[in-house]
Structures are given as structure tokens and as C-alpha cells.
Amino acid sequence: MGFRHNNILFNNHFHKDWQRRVKVWFDQPGQKKRRRNVRSAKAAALGMRPVQPLRPAVRAPTLRYNTKLRAGRGFTLEELKAAGIRKKEARSIGIPVDHRRKNKSEESLKLNTDRLKAYKERIVVLPRRTKQNKGKQPDLSSVQTIRTTIDAFPIPAGTTPEGPRAITSEEKEVDAFRTLRMARANHRAEGQRQARQAKKDEEAAQAKK
To answer: Which domain holds residue 106?
Structure first.
């Protein structure tokens, strides 16, 4: 069965044996129960530690999504410094560190610093087992166990929508289109203005000589 010259290609659909190749999802409830058991076993193995670490609140990229806040990868070094937490200490108490992310606004720095300070106030660090405290159990009767940090420290809303209000007389007098155009023109011509001013200053300095 060869293919030669400019002829039609064969389209031979042989017996596909559908009963052997079909895929069903009858194990979906069982897989759901298995995942739940794995999560329960992980929580039991961690003891009093939270199942999930504390995550920073970051802006999603691109203009379409940057009005929303979501959980990020880790806290920046500047945020840890503002909260008074060392980098190695942060990793030991369940705070991930992302050395690549940078703070580009005071708002994001303050928001994540406040999250770190609130987490630091509620966290209870147990002492390491040594020969001196071997066999001694700390009193944890008044400690409230937090299984998920998302419930205790939720990600805030990205923006607060402003309610409807009447337009003031000052806002009616402002020409928004002209204001934006003038700001754009001033920004584009700033370099030329500085160059002309520098040239005038140089000529004035030479004329004084």
C-alpha cells in the first residue's frame, strides 16, 4: 500500500477496538477520598504546625489583572527587614522568602509587613529538644491551633469600589482630555527643554567671560 504521484491519500479506518481504548472516570470518588486522607495524614504529621505557610499579598501581572491581589511565592528581603525577621529565621518559622521579587510601592511593603507582624504576634515557637528540657512538655493549653494560614490571615481585596456620588462643580469645569494631553506633551518635551536651558546657561557663562 504505497503512496505515489498526485493521488488521494488513503483514509483507512480499521477496527479500532473501542472497548480496549475507552477511558472512564469511575474512580473519581475514590481519588477524592484518597486526597482527603493524604491531607489528613499530612496535618497529623505536622503536629501544631500549619498545613500551609504564610504567603504575601501580591498584585497579579498585566493591566487586566493588576487590580486584584493574590497569594505570592514568598516575602521580599525588604519586607522581612521592616518586620524585624532575619532570612534564616523566617524559613524556620514557616515564612517563605523570595529574593527575586522587589517592592515597587510603599503600599505593598506596608501590607506585607503588617501581615508578617500579625503572624509573628500569634506564632508560638517551641524550644528545641535538648538534654536539659528532655521529657518536659510545654504548657499549650491556652494556644489556639491554626491549621491554615489563609483562614487566619486572608488576602485582602485589591481595590475598594467607590460608591455613587454627584459630580461636583469643580470636576465639571476640568477638561480631562486636555489635561491628559498636556501632561503627555510635557513629558515628551522635557528632554528638549532641559537641553535648551543647558545651552542658554552655557552661552550666558561664555558671555560673562
So the answer is: 52-127+145-155
> Is 94 within a domain?
yes
**Local structure of 8: helix, strand or coil:** coil
pLDDT in tens, 94-150: 899 999 999 999 999 999 999 999 999 988 877 777 777 776 766 666 666 667 788
Distance CA 79, CA 104 (A): 12
Most confident of 75-79, 89-93, 155-159, 171-175: 75-79
The number of distinct structural domains making up the chain is: 1
pTM of the model: 0.61
Residues near 118 by beta carbon (within 8 Å), at least 6 away in sequence: 153
The answer to whether the CB of 98 falls within 8 A of the CB of 72 is yes
Q: Say what the pLDDT of residue 209 is.
A: 78
Could you tell me if 85 and 115 are in contact, meaning their C-beta atoms sit under 8 angstroms apart? Answer: no
Q: Which of 144, 95, 87 is nearest to 115 (CA)?
A: 95
Helix (H, G, I), strand (E, B) or coil at 33: helix
CB within 8 Å of 94: residues ≥ 6 apart: 49, 50, 53, 54, 123, 149
Distance from CA of residue 108 to its chain's centroid?
Answer: 10
